């Protein structure tokens, strides 16, 4: 038996039951030691713990200043002597409360006491009574916090709420140990072990004096309860991103990155999105006023993309290309990569590239839409690539995550043909779109300077977490629920 347990049981032997304060003051054990010993003994059936539910009430500085009386009481006492002229000498808080309590009314520019106010002059003021009760409970602990049990709360709850509304105090629901009682099992344990003998913890002095050779050691209970440890760990979103990253690297892909503030040229124009497309409107895209423009250094590239738009959409405005935006997809990174790696004599094709990053869309918020989201974009640059290669690549990735997906034809301005992958979410009874992809249009690859074929896809990563992390809404990822963050199962990488 641990010495803390022995001291606790010894203290309870004659008293049978006591509260935590009585135990720690009567045993020389600290409060934490009492709590640990009581929980340990409870697990062995040696003690019973009675829990009292209630609330902790923290008093603010203003409430402490009202210890000798509330301002409305002082004003009421003055009104008992006669009406007061309404001028700057009247305390605003006192005025508000005498009127709210019905103690006074205003006429002829003066404040007059009412009949209810005259009755209140010699009667008990509930707010003062409750404040004095709380002050008496604070005692000498110095932290301005009083504990109020549910039984006490029943008679003063309305007044406490009024005081909280006045911002004089803060009420926090709180449970505490009301009493700890020894059981028959505890008495039997105590009778078997008369003293808490042996060394429980080695110190330098004990080793130096060799006292351990005479006293011996107390048995170590490997099954004794201990406080749960919460080691530092990554946020589940970061863990999931790392898992996705490793899965693509294991398939031979190379990770790339790009800026979150992008020009409309790279975000839209280079991807053959018409300049009057609805997705460019303010309701979908976040346009920036600073910087005012983002120019394109490569004038020949700008000319080729301009020709592509004039031929495909019969319109082109260079000023629109220079508008800065918060990128709406990481496909802008793929556009940079096609330009950078699409035509090199130094590289061996096919080349596999992917990027993971945050994107921004002015969405209507619901359980599967947020204004910020994380997106995965991937491309393979090579010759003879087709839709079968794209489907096989995506199926391998989603199978690794435990998703069975279905594909259907879909339209995206920058691919032809295009497809969409979805999975059925049993929890929401809804098909959840996972990604869109296809073969990058020849108009785009030609404008970006390559004659290679490019298969590409873009996937929202946040939605994958519905099934993988067991959440019901994307907003749960940003709530910082410390209980969930501590106790959730880690993702195996």
Defining traits:
493 residues, alpha+beta, Arc Repressor Mutant, subunit A, BirA Bifunctional Protein, domain 2, seven-stranded mixed beta sheet, four-stranded antiparallel beta sheet, 16 strands, flat
Explain how this protein is built:
With 493 residues, this protein is an alpha+beta fold. It has 3 domains: 125 residues, Winged helix-like DNA-binding domain superfamily/Winged helix DNA-binding domain (Arc Repressor Mutant, subunit A); 54 residues, Arc Repressor Mutant, subunit A (Orthogonal Bundle), CATH 1.10.10; 250 residues, Bira Bifunctional Protein, Domain 2 (BirA Bifunctional Protein, domain 2). 39% of the residues lie in helices and 22% in strands. Strands 8-11-12-16-15-14-13 form a 7-stranded mixed sheet, sandwiched between helices. Strand 4 and strand 5 form a beta hairpin. It is flat and about 90 Å long. The model has no long low-confidence stretch (mean pLDDT 85).
């Amino acid at each position: 038996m641990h010495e803390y347990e022995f001291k606790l049981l010894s203290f309870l032997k004659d008293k049978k039951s006591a509260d935590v304060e009585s135990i720690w003051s009567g045993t020389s054990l600290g409060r934490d030691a009492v709590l640990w010993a009581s929980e340990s003994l409870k697990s062995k059936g040696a003690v019973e713990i009675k829990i009292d539910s209630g609330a902790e009430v923290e008093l603010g500085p203003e409430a402490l200043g009202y210890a000798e009386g509330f301002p409305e009481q002082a004003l009421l006492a003055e009104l008992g002597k006669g009406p007061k002229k309404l001028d700057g000498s009247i305390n605003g808080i006192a005025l508000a409360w005498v009127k709210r309590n019905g103690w006074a009314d205003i006429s002829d520019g003066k404040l007059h006491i009412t009949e209810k106010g005259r009755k209140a002059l010699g009667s008990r003021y509930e707010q003062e009574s409750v404040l004095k009760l709380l002050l008496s409970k604070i005692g000498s602990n110095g932290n301005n916090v009083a504990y109020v049990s549910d039984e006490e709360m029943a008679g003063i709850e309305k007044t406490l709420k009024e005081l909280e509304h006045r911002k004089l105090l803060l009420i926090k629901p709180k449970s505490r140990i009301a009493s700890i009682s020894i059981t028959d099992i505890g008495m039997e344990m105590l009778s078997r072990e008369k003293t808490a003998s042996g060394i429980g913890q080695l110190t330098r002095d004990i080793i130096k004096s060799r006292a351990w050779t005479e006293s011996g050691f107390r048995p170590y209970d490997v099954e004794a309860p201990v406080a749960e440890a919460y080691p530092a760990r990554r946020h589940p979103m970061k863990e999931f991103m790392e898992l996705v990253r490793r899965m693509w690297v294991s398939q031979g892909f190379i990770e790339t990155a790009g800026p979150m503030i992008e020009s409309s040229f790279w975000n839209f124009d280079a991807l053959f999105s018409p300049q009057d497309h609805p997705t460019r409107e303010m309701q979908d895209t976040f346009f920036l006023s600073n910087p005012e423009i983002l120019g394109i250094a490569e004038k020949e590239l700008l000319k080729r993309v301009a020709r592509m738009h004039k031929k495909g959409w019969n319109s082109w405005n260079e000023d629109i290309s220079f508008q800065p935006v918060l990128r709406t997809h990481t496909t802008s990174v793929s556009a940079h990569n096609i330009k950078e790696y699409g035509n090199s004599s130094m590289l061996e094709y096919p080349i596999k590239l992917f990027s993971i990053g945050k994107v921004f869309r002015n969405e209507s918020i619901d359980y599967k839409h947020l204004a910020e989201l994380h997106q995965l974009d991937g491309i393979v640059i090579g010759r003879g690539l087709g839709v079968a290669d794209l489907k096989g690549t995506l199926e391998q990735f989603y199978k690794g995550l435990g998703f069975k997906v279905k594909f259907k034809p879909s339209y995206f301005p920058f691919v032809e043909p295009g497809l969409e992958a979805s999975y059925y979410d049993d929890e929401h009874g809804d098909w959840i779109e996972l990604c869109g992809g296809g073969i990058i249009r020849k108009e785009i690859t030609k404008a970006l300077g390559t004659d290679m074929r490019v298969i590409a896809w873009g996937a929202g990563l946040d939605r994958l977490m519905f099934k993988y992390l067991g959440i019901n809404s994307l907003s749960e990822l940003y709530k910082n629920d410390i209980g969930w963050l501590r106790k959730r199962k880690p993702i195996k990488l």
